[in-house]
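Quick question, first post here. What does this chain look like in 3D?
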Amino acid sequence: MASRITAVAPRSRRRFLLAAGAGAAAVAMPQISRAQTLNWRFQSVWRGKDLFHEFAVDYAKRVEEMAGARLKLEVLAAGSVVPAIQMADAVHAGILDGGHGLAAAWQNKHKAYALFGTPPSLGWDSHGFLAWFYQGGGEALYKELVSGILKLDLVGFLCVPMPTQPLGWFNREINSGGDLRGVKFRTTGLAGDLFKELGAAVVVLPGGDIMPAMERRLVDAAEFNNPSSDLQLGLPEVAKLYMMGSHHRPAETFEIIFNKAKYEALPAELRAILRHAALSASSDQLWQAYSRYARDFEQIRKRGVRVAKTGPAVLADELKAWDAVLAPLSKEPFFAKVLASQKAWVKSTGAYLHTNNLDSNALLSAYKHFFG
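> Answer (accepted):
Ran it through. C-alpha cells below.
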C-alpha cells in the first residue's frame, strides 16, 4: 500500500516547524529550577590566617562553583560568631548553618567522637580511615552516634586524608617513651590520653597559644599537625628539634557539618553538591598539602632546626600505650562497637595492602637510589 503524504500549507507549515523546534529544545534543554541564592553562614574552628581555614574557604568556593551560585557559604574564622569549641552546638541550634573542623573536637559529648577524628594506630593511614568511613560501615556508625545517641541536629562528612603527623617539637631528643615522663606536652584528643599513659603532663592549648606558651616555658614540647601549620605558628622559633613520624596520630581528616533540618530542606542536587564537594576536596587538598608541606619542611630546615626520625623504641612504646588507653574506653558499648568495626576493616584490607604495597623502608631505598 502506497504511503499517503498530506500537503501542508506554507503558513501551517511554519507553525508546525516552530512547534517541532520548541519541542526538541525542551528535550535537549530541560527546565532547571533557578531558586533565589541561599547564603549560609559557615564557621571554621581555625584562625583566619590558618592553612586549614584556607581549606575551609576552598571547600566553600568548590560548592559555589558546582552549585552555579545557587548556594554560597560565607566562611567565617573561629570566634566570628561563637568560640571554636562551641561551633557544633551553634550548628545544631541553627545559629550557624554549617562548619569546618575536626570530629575529635567534640569528644566531650561522647568519647567515640574521637574515633571519627583521630583514631588509634591500627596499621592504617588516613586513606584507609576514609575508606572505612565510606565503604566499611563507618558513616552509618557516625550517623548512629550523631543522630541516634546524641540527638544532634547535624549531618556531616569526613574529608581530606592527612599525612602521618610528626611526634612534635622538642629541645631534647626523645629516645623512648620513658623520655616523655614529666614533659609538659601540648596535644589534644585521644593523643592526649596516649601521652598521659607515657607519663607526659598533657597541656591542651589552641594552636595560636603554643608558641607563647613555649616561650614562657609553660610548655616544654608540642605537636600540632604538619610543617606548614607549624611554620605558621612560629614553632621553629621556640624549639630546634623536630621529630618526624609517630603512632599518636597516623590518621586524621576534617569534618564538615551542616544543620540537618536546613540540609534536608535543600533540593536533592544541592545536598549532593555539598557531599560531593567534600569528596573532591579530599583529593585536591591532599595534593595541595603534599606540595606545600614539602616546601615548608625545607624552610624549617633552613632555620637551623634539627630534624630527627622518631626511633623504633618510641614507636613500640606508643603502641603499648594504645593498648592501655583503649582497654578502659572499650568498656563503653558504642565506643567498643566503633573500634571493633575499625579493627575488622583494617584486618580485612590490611592483608592485601601490607602484602602488596611497598613499606616505608622499600620506598626509602628507592628514594635514595635516585636522589642519594
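The longest helix spans residues 268-302.
The longest strand covers residues 38-44.
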